From TrEMBL, chains A, B:
Cross-referenced NCBIfam families: nadE (TIGR00552), PRK13981.1 (NF010588)
Ligand binding (L-glutamine): 122, 179, 185
Catalyzed chemical reaction(s): deamido-NAD(+) + L-glutamine + ATP + H2O = L-glutamate + AMP + diphosphate + NAD(+) + H(+)
Protein name: Glutamine-dependent NAD(+) synthetase
E.C. numbers: 6.3.5.1
Highest classification ranks of the organism: Bacteria, Bacillati, Actinomycetota, Actinomycetes, Pseudonocardiales
InterPro entries to which the protein is assigned, alphabetical: C-N_Hydrolase, C-N_Hydrolase_sf, Gln-dep_NAD_synthase, NAD/GMP_synthase, NAD_synthase, Rossmann-like_a/b/a_fold
Gene giving rise to this polypeptide: nadE
Residue numbers binding ATP: 323-330, 424
Superkingdom as given in the UniProt entry: Bacteria
Nucleotide-binding as UniProt keyword: yes
Keyword annotations from UniProtKB, A to Z: ATP-binding, Ligase, NAD, Nucleotide-binding
Amino acid sequence: MPQLRIALAQVNPTVGDLDGNTALTVEWTRRAAESGAHVVVFPEMSQTGYPVEDLAFRATFAQASRKSLDELARRLDDAGCGEVLTYVGYLDQDEAGPRNAAAALFRGEVVAKQYKHHLPNYGVFDEQRYFKPGTELEVVRLHGIDIGMVICEDLWQDGGPVAALGKAGVDLVVAPNASPYERSKDEQRLPLVARRAAEAGAPLVYTNQVGGQDDLVFDGDSLVVGADGELLARAPQFVEHLLVVDLDLVSGGHAGDGDTGSDLAGLPVRRRVLSDEPVPAYPPRTEPVVSEPLSDEAEVWSALVVGLRDYVHKNGFTSVTFGFSGGIDSAVCAALAVDALGGDHVYGVSMPSKYSSAHSKDDAADLARRIGAHYRVEPVEDMVKVYVDQLALTGLAEENIQARTRGMLLMALSNLDGHLVLATGNKTELAVGYSTIYGDAVGGFAPIKDVFKTHVWQLARWRNEEAVNRGETPPIPENSITKPPSAELAPGQQDSDSLPDYALLDDILDDYVEGDRGYADLVAAGFEPETIDRVVRMVDRAEYKRRQYPPGTKITFKAFGRDRRLPITNAWRERKA
Amino acid sequence: MPQLRIALAQVNPTVGDLDGNTALTVEWTRRAAESGAHVVVFPEMSQTGYPVEDLAFRATFAQASRKSLDELARRLDDAGCGEVLTYVGYLDQDEAGPRNAAAALFRGEVVAKQYKHHLPNYGVFDEQRYFKPGTELEVVRLHGIDIGMVICEDLWQDGGPVAALGKAGVDLVVAPNASPYERSKDEQRLPLVARRAAEAGAPLVYTNQVGGQDDLVFDGDSLVVGADGELLARAPQFVEHLLVVDLDLVSGGHAGDGDTGSDLAGLPVRRRVLSDEPVPAYPPRTEPVVSEPLSDEAEVWSALVVGLRDYVHKNGFTSVTFGFSGGIDSAVCAALAVDALGGDHVYGVSMPSKYSSAHSKDDAADLARRIGAHYRVEPVEDMVKVYVDQLALTGLAEENIQARTRGMLLMALSNLDGHLVLATGNKTELAVGYSTIYGDAVGGFAPIKDVFKTHVWQLARWRNEEAVNRGETPPIPENSITKPPSAELAPGQQDSDSLPDYALLDDILDDYVEGDRGYADLVAAGFEPETIDRVVRMVDRAEYKRRQYPPGTKITFKAFGRDRRLPITNAWRERKA
């Protein structure tokens, strides 16, 4: 059977950085060529990064993207990679509008280009706003193997473009993807790709983007499956990786150059022959290339680390600062920041007020020591006192001014030293609005914004156990994990004064927010009506605060932020009846 | 010719307030009945308010909306309005998903319901995320007149549902709308509605929502045109209004009850006969009902006043507070706030620092006197000093802490007294990022967020002239209009130190932001390359600040906010070549 060596370039582009992404593609294609690959497949829109959002509407950006594609083809040829058939993604634009496009490059030229057919418009996706759908399929013959391509969402359609390729006849399908991470998404991908390979009657090569972009993180998890659905290769998650696999293929002897009709989905197929001669038989690579998926906790931790690291670095920062309160949230953020950036780039600030307990200060200092972060103590009592005295503040106004004084202090240090400020709030707080706007909500990024409080504790325990297993110092002080949570904005204050127990609260939120369940469902699930009322009311009223919160890495479908949006002015109250 | 009296109920519902909106509809239908109307037409989704955003995904909300529709039908009948054919909008849901729906109510029952066919998915609209499109048209015969309906965007389609109604045969078309205000949008509406009436071969009744909802404001401007395109009636903008008009109609003698095919657009038409007997001839109303559109400045001012008033009131606030700096932006916000809420609900705060000029303090006090607002002086020097001394702040860090200290002070007053804080920044500042996050960007609402700086001056002059014409005191101190703008965060600082002249800057922004033009276009328009570089770079880097800004009334298609979104992590730079 004819052989081909295929490389999947699971890379981390930066949105908008056409020059940088071109250089990245040249470098990884060079590595693919060195490994002897005949074909290399990059992720969806690899030239522009994904998602480009409103850059799609800038005609100058689309022109520059098209130009960068031609330049890339030439540079690949100049770099001696012209014989490697290179699949990349880019932003195109024609008279109909912007296009989410992929192209095949060979010997210095664009030999095929194709537009995405199915444009997702749910969750984080708004592609029906941005792009016009494609209507054609391009098949390229290399060494006698007919290779079809589809882009990301095209794979999720039964009887869609992949079925059309199968009907028309192809020997291999390649699919550039930018499929954002969600918890346990890898469990969906493999069966899907396997089903689609069966529909095509050919092996399927699925390359996914890796890395963080604003609130999205891409996990990679690139795959190759055989026509029979067997998993042949799988890249590790959350790292750039060149996955190289040898395939034994069946040359279908399909039609040659020119257009071929396809009666399925009415999609015309255009064929181009680059070479008919099979590759001479060669010994396939022998190393194993099927990476195991990470455990659930390791996967989430990696997502949060990579999301944070890329947000900091891609925005031109090298260091972060935030309050070390002694509590669990800031401790987990600190452990993430150290894993992402190294202790030397993390600047912890203890900002005690007169209500801060001794253990808070001790635990904060202990945290800094454990993780090797910079650490300073800046009391806020003097700032708070001026406000309280001048304005005669009491109650909530006095509580808030403490949190806000800390936010201003961190921003001042950011202005002085160039650190990015992190907001350390969790998803539970965000859901119910248990935070101070311009206070603890201050920052450019919120690492655990999409992690419920009970999950924060789980991650802390998991990370400490990992450290023990590796013979390292656990980063998070045990006391920060075990003590009752408190904002320490009033004497003896505890979170449980204002909120239901976190285990109960997270259970309700899981049903109400993640599950979109209603009042009757919540009662049926056994929650007390009074508690439901209280929680639902808090959630429905907190939209303004949620919108003002910094972005943070999304790990679930129902992350607060871009893809979930309630009206601010909203008189709806979930009802009993 | 048969007559019918039609009422257009241009009302201001609140999103999510099903009970309140039901009461509103009963009250306005009662008024329509009192005026002798046979038909009353409410806006799109009048039961739920528009837009409902992610409430569309809450099954319990859709159920409550459907239930409220049935209840409304009964309550109308109980109120003696059962004989008035009442068209309302609501959220429906069936097995396919959520629906943007309209219904006709008569004698206590829902006699027809129809789903929106064309779902806009551009600008502020995301309806393809939320709704499934309709596939049927409902025609109701009242007093021998066949009445078809379409919903909002259905009107914008040549050869769409209106053409299908025309082909099938109707004597009148009613169209509930929720069409957000944009500058000079009324110039588009009338020709469009006239064209559509010609396509239907029947008069067309266009009822639009009025009032503010988050960053949107609806101007009303409800219309009736004859089959020949003649404007027969027009409601005033930006106020609730019952527009009553008598129409002489042609009874087409179309098919009766049951389904009728339509070969145009393949849309089946379902007909229902309520009554065949024409209304006995009666003397039509004689008062003129064609309101003149407002002037451009009056229209924008009204949009900003209504947007602000409804945001404050619909969110449960009665009063606002913000910094009176003596500058033009806060002066215009103050004049808007007084027009929206009355001087007794406006709380101005002068917050001088050591860099504040004497004229700033005088102009702020003068403003308060002119508009009858509450006014207090709260120096920020003591707060600033603690930060500057403790952290050794200089330069930008020292400038920012002044702005932030003011933001915190306003939030403390808000916490004490329950005022909503307004952010007074304008669109020019927002475009180039010339503001301090957590400083002057603090607030729940930003009244002039979508108004360029040069336009702010224009509005100030216009508002003062209006006052003079009415024999009132001009609200805005002349000095605030004429003096050079300054943030007063450093000795002798002026905006012109950091920014190009505002006239030039707004010209470039108009081309780059509103016009989406590229570098080459800007050069061709005669701008200096150095200035283009400087402005474009500022705009492209300010996305994070723009996203953290409070919502504010949108008056242009390219308002910053929901409908415009660049990546935060964005390495794209507009290029010379």
